[in-house]
Design goal:
Helix content is 20%, strand content 34%. It contains four helices and twelve strands, in the order αββαβββββαβαββββ. The strands form three sheets. Strands 3-4-5-6-12-11-10-9 form an eight-stranded antiparallel β-sheet, covered by helices on one side. A two-stranded antiparallel ribbon has the order 1-2.
């Protein structure tokens, strides 16, 4: 499987194996193992937290649901969990806008420009089936993919996990 196949599949389905917005964190770690804990996304709270499996980054809510999924593609090599991509998990990066659009078209995945994230030195498109976002950095004449993300599930979590106290908020 090539990286464009992985990203196109994610754009069509809204998931990468057990990973999707709203996935139970226990199911993800059972399937993929323990991730790197990048840390909290807020200075004042322990949750939500950001975790990574190589260049697959997941924001996890205090209710232990995946709330955002991103694939960082700005590095020279994109690393994804081998168990869900069916090979070593390392892919060459530098994906051009034209190649991403061509792959989406070939897969029958409709898309549209995404004006809210198109400004300055970046442009963006959204895959219609999943609302996946592809944001490109404009480098010279050809935009290069910087990040692909699946939209958050939009929940406003008021959950208080069992056994947690105010410091866990």
């Amino acid at each position: 499987m090539e990286i464009l196949d992985v990203l196109t599949s994610m754009a069509k389905t809204g998931r990468l194996g057990p990973v999707f917005s709203g996935a139970d964190w226990n199911d993800v770690t059972a399937a993929l193992g323990e991730p790197w804990d990048i840390g909290t996304t807020s200075r004042n709270r322990k949750w939500p937290r950001l975790f990574a499996y190589g260049d697959l980054e997941l924001s996890v809510c205090r209710c232990r649901k995946v709330s955002l999924v991103c694939v960082q593609t700005w590095r020279e090599v994109v690393e994804l969990p081998p168990s869900v991509v069916g090979r070593t998990g390392a892919f060459p990066a530098g994906l051009r806008h034209a190649d991403v659009v061509s792959a989406l078209d070939k897969a029958g995945c409709s898309w549209a420009p995404y004006p809210p994230l198109t400004f300055g030195d970046q442009c963006s498109l959204v895959a219609i089936p999943s609302r996946a976002n592809f944001t490109f950095e404009i480098q010279g004449e050809e935009p290069v993919l910087n990040v692909m993300s699946l939209p958050g599930d939009g929940h406003d979590c008021s959950a208080r996990p069992a056994g947690r106290d105010r410091r866990d908020r």
